[in-house]
Amino acid sequence: MRIRTRGFGMLAGIALIVSACSGSPTPVPPTVAPSVSAPSVAPSTPPASVAPSSTPAPSFAQKPGLKIGVVTDIGTLDDKGYNEFSFKGAQDGATAIGVTDPVPSIVPKDASEYAADIQQFVSQKFDVIVTVGFNLTTPTVDAAHKNPNIKFIGVDQSPECILPTGAPDPNFACKGVPATALPNYTSLYFAEDQAGYLAGIVAAYADKGAATPTGVIGAIGGTTLCAPCVRYIQGYTLGAQSVNPSITVKSAYVTHDFSNAAFNDPAGGKAFAQTFIQANKPDVLFQVAGKTGNGVLEAACAANIYGIGVDVDQWASLGAPANACIITSAEKHVESAVAQAIEGIAAGTLTAGDVLFNAKNDGISAADFHDKASLFGPEVTTALNTAMAAMQAGTLVTCPATGCGVAP
Amino acid sequence: MDLTPIINGLYGIPVVGLVFQLAGYLVSVIPQNGPNIMQQATPLALGAICGVLCERSGVVNIAIEGTMLAAAFTAWVVGVAIQPMFGTPNPSDIFGITLPLLIALAAAVLVAMAISALHAWLSISLRADQIISGTIINIAAAGLTGYLNQLISQNSPAGAGEFARFVPPAALTNLPVIGWVLALLLNQGPISISVIVLVVGTQVWLFRSRWGLRTRAVGEHPRAAETVGIDVIRTRYRNVILGGVFAGLAGAFLSIEATNSFQQNMTAGRGFIALAAMIMGRWTPIGSFGAALLFATFLQIGTLINIAPPSGQLGSIMAGVPPQLFDALPYILTIVILAGVVGRSTPPAADGQPYEREAAT
Fold this sequence. Notes:
CATH architecture of chain B: Orthogonal Bundle
Helix content of chain B: over 70%
Shape of chain B: globular
CATH topology of the largest domain in chain A: Rossmann fold
Number of helices of chain A: 13
Largest interface: A-B, 39 and 38 residues
Number of strands of chain B: 0
Oligomer: heterodimer
CATH topology of chain B: ABC transporter involved in vitamin B12 uptake, BtuC
Number of strands of chain A: 12
Order of helices and strands of chain B: HHHHHHHHHHHHHHHH
Strand content of chain B: under 5%
CATH architecture of the largest domain in chain A: 3-Layer(aba) Sandwich
Mean pLDDT of chain B: 88
Largest sheet of chain A: 6 strands, parallel
Largest sheet of chain B: none
Radius of gyration of chain B: 22 Å
Number of domains of chain A: 2
CATH class of the largest domain in chain A: Alpha Beta
Structural class of chain B: mainly alpha
Distance between the termini of chain B: 81 Å
Radius of gyration of chain A: 22 Å
Number of domains of chain B: 1
CATH superfamily of the largest domain in chain A: Response regulator
Strand order of the largest sheet of chain A: 2-1-3-4-5-11
């Protein structure tokens, strides 16, 4: 038995060497797609929403020898959230640039393992390491600083705080400029306010269309410390007001720290939302609280009001019967963003520092209405398309000029 | 009679008026949130009863958290597994009970009893350190349920659903003064609604029955109990395993009554708060229930201040207080009460001490 496993190991090693030899020195020049131009990402990347034609031309720079590893946040690889879609994005990106080896992933058991798990990929001489979630910011920045020859992609790690040398700044003075001090590190972040804005438009129309509209819509965030959560809700408010200037948008945050209550307590989230619904009588409730928020959606459905999901299309990810009242979700296209970043590395076009994913580069959207489509007339689709076009043109304000991402 | 001028007068008194404003705010918001308070109190009260039964017989059980978590997982996963066999049964009018839900509940209780039996075996028969045994169970439960959940939840399978809440007639809940208490206790699902019965039942059982007397004797002075013919080992086993039933109910409450889902570590420390409630309640079921209610009430007050803060002078003062303070309110209260009130109460004398029979001569 022992010998056999060793034999497998040798086989795998030989396979690795063979694949590495056969693959690497055949770079295909990128064909420039004239579609949407992302400011800082590979211009060769068409948005994922554009359906590929029947003959998929390899329009991406090919780097089959690239070894790509993913370190997720605590939790599971199939969390129907960040971990899962970042991992899928890494797989998509690997496929697009011709990598045939499976993309390995490590799921840390707790925060103390982050650095060690990243180090595992470093030790095995991986070329690209994707780390998922802002909790991994410091370990990722640290590893990027120590390993300048490895490319690091951090999902949702902005703003990272570093010293001018590129090392993580323990004193949070943040004097270093990531783009120059850490040329091998890219943080992908998202315009949550734009996704929230679209959700707000849908919410305002759903409120109008309710049997007895209360003129109130609500949003529940996990914690005030989560800037993306706050941006979602700020965009949501502005989006709803763009449809109905007199609408009341009530928002509350389950807690003010990063305890379990913020994102991992569905029972607590449900109780919180029940209180919220009782106090504010909203027609629509938008959850921005992870698993805690799944309890929020349950409370919304139980109270016969509409729910709006977050980050991914929760109508699809939660399934029946939990999705009974979900009208849409404010989506961040993590999968697309990670894939674009890996393609950008292969093409040599990925810039260091913070790279924003928004309406311009397929970073955000509002999810499909699914079985709730009959609730919404053509004017809703028009309003969404108009807003999307304005965001792509950069002319729509979706977050307050001062205090964007800062809870009131 | 219109009380408004009197109330406004009271509110207007400097400094002391704030107390009246606070009282007025609480009186206006807490009654209508009674059922929410009970929702938060249920797992704590059930966990605390588990603790009371164990510790009254002399076995410290800090594995309540892990037992609850394993039970929550079992209830959910059994629901997932057997749901296809039953199609989509029509929920009964009472509590939305379906056969799969009942099976899931029974499975959760059985698993919790099995885990408690493991704890009993480790700490009673093997005389292992009871804290270490409990810690092991907590760690194992978190790891195992997390891993299995990862395997199972891949295709987001539908669970067996959840128990529905009983809606008491408005004639009851609209009664003056006690109406909201009735709503608190009765506008609940089956597990939650049974808490009050279980609390009173275990209280009577522990202090008015032969088994209860023996349990307490074993917890206070096992050697003396043995001399009068009580089987210490068997009594402890029975109590610890019976305690598991309550931890199992608490876990099932989280995954098939309060919500219809399982999440990794979804107990979120409730098993430990239950232990605090047990101590605050001086190792009695009724006291523990009161402590759980108190804790849940303060949790609810924190939420309410967050969602619908009071207006006027009190509101502007509260707006200046860091909101973290209100989040921490129930925990601060726990520390204060444990330090002050319970300082004089003592645990069962033989609590946590393994018992060794005297060698027969």
